[in-house]
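This follows on from our talk about sequence and fold. I would like you to pick a protein and set down its sequence and fold. Go ahead and set the record down below:
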Amino acid sequence: MSATMTEKTQTLAVDEQPSFTPTKVFFINSSSGDFSDELHVLDLTSNVTLSPCSSTSPIPDSLRDEVERAASEQKNDRSAWSFELTRGTFSSTMEFHDASAGGAVAAELDMPVLKHYSVWKVRFPEGSPHSSHDVEVRPVSIWKKQETFVKDSVPYLWDMSMGGKGGVLYKTVEFEKRVPVAQFVAKNWFKNCCVLVLDDRQLDAVVALSTCVAVLNRDI
């Protein structure tokens, strides 16, 4: 993405009605103290009540509590995992395995040496149903808690500037405005779990999850 495109994506006006209705709810759980080793992802959409979310405020505590209760009952049940992310010892690549496809690799995340500041690359296998091209997640600057990427020529922006360990994903619409399509929150006192809500009519779930993992590994 060019510097001009990055700056334009950052400064676009947010939709006058900055809310969205998620179609998917995911719980991301790490087996370690961060999000760069082994991750398990639960799709808890059928276990919770979905309602509109606002990009101007964090995910409601009531929804987060509902998701975490459902996750506590299933997170140790391997058959309930929708996705699993693994990274070999001394490897800089995280493999994104899709349980619905027999554990096939749906994407690979290339983790940079300076994972807090450099570009993360999400690679997809040939013929992938999730993306026809690789995706690069780039920081807007080292001073801003914002990340950009492009999917099918459409710019997206992860904004983590609202405070706490949370963020909102915006999609550029008609090259004129940004609308929210996803949101995440991770507990301040418990780094290794995260709730992600997504409108998957606006962005593929694997792309959203992969880029979310990248921004979770930033110093947010």
